[in-house]
Queue: 2 jobs
Job 1
Amino acid sequence: MSGKIQMKNPIAELDGDEMTRILWDAVKEKLLKPFIDLNVEYYDLGLKVRDDSDDRITYEAAAAIKRLGVGVKCATITANAARMTEYQLKQLTPSPNGIIRAELDGTVFRKPILVKNIQGTVTCWEKPIILGRHAYGDVYKNCEMQVSDPGKAELVFTAADGSETRKTIMEMKGPGILQGIHNTDKSIESFARSCFLYGLSEGVDVWFATKDTISKTYDGRFKDIFQQVFDAEFKTRFEEKGVTYFYTLIDDAVARVMRSKGGYLWACKNYDGDVMSDMVASASGSLAMMTSVLVSPDGIYEYEAAHGTVQRHYYRYLKGEKTSTNPVALIFAWTGALSKRAELDGTPELGGFAEKLEKQTLAVIEDGYMTGDLAGIASPPAKQVLDSWQFIDTIAERLA
Ligand code: NAP
Ligand code: MG
């Protein structure tokens, strides 16, 4: 259709569940379709469809993201016992995010969306801190044991040829606890690559930290692999982009983060990422203002909101209430995907639209018009609390 922005290549679109599915459609109808000839490959990842297809649809969607290079995903229900009954499921389908992450061998990065009138709790953070968590191994795939008698604890590796390497962990004098953990060079390399790629893509410095002074072999391996991947594949590209890679000890990193202005990507080992992502998220105000990007080591991107399907709002919506659910992270999932598509295809008009949509969304909030979750924490206070549809309409008016 003439007048609308054209897309050279499609995006894989993954629809989802509950309140986010309702808002997903509203965002497309009001904020995207009037301005763009949306070119998508659509996959319905609604719970019932996933269950009916024995999750085939989820694997097809993951394959489409890999093929097209860019995906955008609505929040989806991860099935549990209650959902089995509610949706009359055949089986407990696994988390779609888990499946897609494994298929893409990717890393998830969370990035807060900042607005001037929502003051974060850490006042020196002027720019977003993007946090990437290595979601494989360490204590999350551990083997542990409680012992009640004295004895020798050993670490034993039996090679494929049967030869053994042994090290004494501890001569236990009495009761205690033991733990074995692992990681793989391959997984650490993929993680490093995803972090450097996303840092480049966002044009920000990359920080990484471990405790390699204490854990010389285990954490030392993380440090070495990051440096090797950086030197071999990213050093020149980082220089060209004017960004840096910075390695330090984890305690030093935490101290620096707390007094920084933000504006970098913080790559974390699995446990550090688990803990620090909650710290960064809670300091940033609202879960509804957080995006999440899955980045594969070969440069494939899937964008989504960090929050879930907002189940409680959905039940109120089903009873006829116009809920004041915040669609900002869903909007930013779309703008992230459209910007990436534009960058890969060399279509600046599309990229310009994505940028404009982000700016107008933030401007509406900064002008005092927002959903209920933000009204509770805004300073100066909100001029008007809008329901989701009024909020989306207000953005649409400014785009027109
Ligand atoms: P949730 O959907 O993130 O919602 C938890 C609470 O956070 C809501 O009840 C609401 O608080 C607030 N909230 C979250 N997003 C909001 C928004 N956009 N606007 C306003 N308030 C928002 O988490 P959940 O209720 O624990 O999970 C619901 C379902 O989502 C589950 O089935 C879970 O499996 C799924 N989930 C999916 C993903 C994903 O696909 N990436 C991620 C997490 C969870 P109030 O009710 O107090 O207003
Ligand atoms: Mg956590």
Job 2
Amino acid sequence: MSTIDTNMFEPESAILPLLKGTAIDGMAAYEALVKKAQTDRLGFWERLAREHLTWRRPFTKVLDDSNAPFFKWFDDGTLNASYNCLDRHLQDGNADKVAIVFEADDGNVTTITYRQLLARVCRLANALHERGIGLGDRVMIYLPMSIEGVVAMQACARIGALHSVVFGGFSAKSLHERMVDVGAVAVITADEQMRGGRNLPLKSIVDEALTMGGTDDVHTVVVYRRTGGSILWNATRDCWLHEIEAAQPDTCEPEWVSAEHPLFILYTSGSTGTPKGVQHSTAGYLLWTSVTMKWTFDIRSDDVFWCTADIGWITGHSYICYGPTAIGATQVIFEGVPTYPNAGRFWEMIAQHKVSIFYTAPTAIRSLIKASESDKTVHPRRFDLRSLRLLGTVGEPINPSAWEWYAREVGDGRCPVLDTFWQTETGGHMIAPLPGATPLVPGSCTLPLPGIEAAIVDETGVELPNGQGGLLVVKKPWPSMLRTIWGNPERFRHGYYPPELGGNLYLAGDGAIRDPETGYFTITGRIDDVLNVSGHRMGTMEIESALASNPLVAEAAVVGRPDETIGEAIVAFVVLKGPRPTDAEAKKIADQLRAWVGKEIGPIAKPKEIRFGDSMPKTRSGKVVRRLLRSVAKGEAVAQDMSTVENPAVLHQFSEHV
Ligand code: PRX
């Protein structure tokens, strides 16, 4: 690793001073750790694992790479994730520290201490046990943002059951697909969720999913009463969370599991096929979420941490359910949306709860910039944000102007802005600045964390020099990496350790480039057919299959178009079975198809634009020419070489949209 000349960063450093006295204090400390991790890799991870986790039976072997890429870490050690996240704090003097400050959609605030949280987790764990749920069983969680969401996930971890959380914005069909793939025996849900002043159904969606077949093993549906809205009740299967909790004692012996026991399965979109169940381990995953809380977020005992992600995504797993609790932090959990009752909600909450570390998505920042331009009363400067000391972003690239606005208007030029790059598969941060060490540059996630050996390679796996764009890879295994794809080890091996790259490099699926002088990384976007819409990962294939399953549709192709606010907008090109619709019909059919995709996958997958043509532009060998469709979607003139395209005229039809 090249030495970093901090003088080069003068302009930004002057705007954003680094913090003093952080966990990794200064560039020399960072470089020393990187070196340590390189020269004594196993010793580096061993020390961290002994220091940060509480083991029931200590491990004797750090890494088993005999069956690469199916790596095992700390394999003969035993522990329990919920013990590490909860019980530990009853012994370290933090029993009565507030674990969660929950703010509901309507502004109502509830708090829970570590002692109370442990009691609730134990009660639910006992109740699940009583219903025959235990080690290795899979439990679906389909809940709103709530204390109950954390209780449900931790209760599963306590008894060694694997949770699979599905974001509340997914449809019955998507929930069903995941439920069948994972082989669930139980579901934990709520009657309804409240978002932006509206009640939205959850339990009825679970009911619908359970009528779709292949879910006979689901014998229990636990229902959290959130709104009291009316729901249907199946007396043999359904039970109220508050009733089963009330019937149980508030202690529960944890199930001591092996370090490699799967902690959870979380589905994410890939470029092909159905969503894949990313499987994470217990020890390796928990280790890295704890360590990154300390290194990246520099968390201290008096911090108030707020990650605005949903527990249905990996960010909510790592930096709401597990990371903050493992290190005994106080965190804010928010039920609602950033624009309700107005776009000042985030700033108002930061002021009210004295949030010191704030972690959100670039899309949220961009939409709040827009809102504050048209309504000065929701501008962050109108709020007392002096409690903030650190700001972070995740999920998608942040454009320098949004980064600068965030730094200036929210952080008042005092708070480092950390652009953290990572993925569902990586479990925790991979490339991110350290607030006391890394001079910041807008638009760059800067440098890999110590222990993470990231590089950029060409299509044959050869490492490229700085300044040359290529494929982002990780050269060595790390403890929090996914272990496999649930039920599909070959998909794991081929997708993440492709033979074309030599079979020993983890392929992130993103393009990246390093600065010639500093070695800083900039992520240039996915190299596959995965879109990033408002920081949510969507497979184009999934949306295409959903559209193609509509009786009106003969063929569909989906691409992303850069969008100022949401990062990428979904644009669908559709060929109907009947003739190309007239302009008047087109709007109606587009609305129908949008609603259809909402039902098939979820509202987050609805195309922003739908365009109709007589046929799909294809090469003579029958491949859809996505490259051209992307240009058309962007509104670019399609003056490229058309000699390979069968039916170029259709591109002009596709240039019009509704
Ligand atoms: O393309 C990258 C983008 O989000 C993808 C991972 O999505 P997901 O698994 O849903 O996890 C998101 C939250 C960790 C990556 O492959 N991505 C994530 N963070 C960044 C990013 N792109 C640019 N900069 C980031 N900081």
